[in-house]
Amino acid sequence: MTTRTSFSVSRYAPQRGPLLKLTARDSVLRRLDWPMLLAALTLSLLGALLVWSATRGRTQLNQGDPYYFLFRHLLNTGIGLALMVGTIWLGHRTLRGAVPVLYGISILLILAVLTPLGATINGAHAWIVIGGGFSLQPSEFVKITIILIMAMLLAAKVDAGDQLHPDYGTVAKALVLAALPMGIVMLMPDLGSVMVMAVIVLGVLLASGASNRWVLGLIGTGVLGAVLVTALGMLDEYQINRFAAFANPDLDPAGVGYNTNQARIAIGSGGLYGTGLFKGHQTSGQFVPEQQTDFIFTVAGEELGFVGAGLILVLLGIVLWRACRIARETTELYGTVVAAGIIAWFAFQSFENIGMTLGIMPVAGLPLPFVSYGGSSMFAVWVAIGLLQSIRVQRPMTA
Fold this sequence. Notes:
By secondary structure, the protein is mainly alpha-helical. Helix content is 65%, strand content 4%.
């Protein structure tokens, strides 16, 4: 007998008829998951304060305007909220039909990064500069399209009532379609994003009810791939140095280990309640590089202390908790798989970002969801929230 994951798919009934229409008493607003929405919004607004503190004195970055990054972070949040509303309005089922087109667009965008249109920022050739100080990181949106394309394939026959679990051929096709953009992103190279995508694929497979052999095979392939990438010299020198500094923090404290050493000093100096917003010596002294993006958690640790940093963890936990409820309560495998992919994405990326500031994970250049400065990341995570909310809103209603 084929071994399968413990995630049950027996509750998924064919979705052949239209959903009952929402009444005024049970409107879209009433069906939204407000704890998740408020937690995510609080994270973004708290991130605005932290970004402001990290950048208001960095004249080489803010072009002499201490509010430069604050306004842009708030603008990114506003655009992200608009994208969330648009996603809810369209609905995850409507987007299901457009997934092949979205997948094709995402492939073209990441291929464009490898052309002269691409730009190198912080060692990763992963950006497209639009102009006016704006840039686009297509790999952030690839995370969404991988989730959607795999969910579309894995859930098609199950939701139609033809199968209880995805068959081997379907799983193989889904993995091939996920591997294509991951391989392109690896060429940039953007190892951090590839790590997140790999975890997304694993989360999607676990939620789909696919055989455990696929999950174990994927893990084994990942380990083998990491060995081959290292042996063949496919990693850039700065990436190798990051892993070396993680393995031995004292290897080069003034060089490759500088970021993590300064990050731990900043967090450690905050104590229980922190030094106070805008009063962090490490932050105001500009000792921590990339503090508004990858190392934004250090600002919280120093200026808001253990209490403020813990609040960020609690808010992230609320988002993940509510997402798990949505994944469990939906009556279609497609919605469950999409939610599971988003959960894996948010959980791993948050753990990696916070872990690298604490020295328990290697530096991978990943932003903290909702908190770090960056338009592409902010837009992607709010689209993901829109997908989760759509899954909740469009659940079949009882008569």
